[in-house]
Write a structure and sequence with these properties.
By secondary structure, this protein is mainly alpha-helical. The chain contains 6 helices and 2 strands.
Length: 113
C-alpha cells in the first residue's frame, strides 16, 4: 500500500470514529477554518499576500488536522495544548475540565427572572 493510500485510510477511519464529522473534536473547526485561522485559503495560498508583501508562500505539505487519534484534532488546538503544557499548566487544565464537567452551574450562573 502506498503512502497516499495510508493517508486516505487514516482519514476515512477517523471520520468513521467521529461520526462522519470532518471537524476538530475540541473546537469544531473544519480544516478550511483552521487554514483560515493561519491566514491561508483552502488551496494553501496566503489570503492577504499582496497586502503583506508575501511572495512564493504556499501551505502545501503542512497538515492542519490530525486524524490519527481517537478523534480529529486541529493544529490550533494542538498549539494551545502545547503552550499550556510548556507553561506547566497541566493541573490547571485538568481542574478547568473538571469544573466544566462537574461545576457547570458555578461557571455559568443562571439568571433569575
Amino acid at each position: 500500500m502506498t503512502r497516499i493510500d495510508d493517508r486516505f485510510n487514516e482519514y476515512f477511519s477517523a471520520l468513521e470514529r467521529a461520526g462522519n464529522h470532518d471537524r476538530c473534536y475540541v473546537c469544531r473547526r473544519t480544516p478550511a477554518e483552521v487554514k483560515a485561522f493561519f491566514g491561508f485559503d483552502e488551496d494553501g495560498v496566503p489570503m492577504q499576500a499582496a497586502q503583506y508583501g508575501i511572495e512564493d508562500v504556499v501551505f502545501e505539505e503542512a497538515d492542519v488536522m490530525s486524524y490519527r487519534g481517537v478523534r480529529p484534532v486541529c493544529a490550533v488546538c494542538q498549539l494551545n495544548f502545547d503552550a499550556l503544557f510548556m507553561l506547566g499548566e497541566q493541573e490547571v487544565l485538568r481542574e478547568v475540565l473538571s469544573q466544566m464537567e462537574n461545576g457547570r452551574d458555578h461557571l455559568w450562573p443562571r439568571h433569575e427572572t
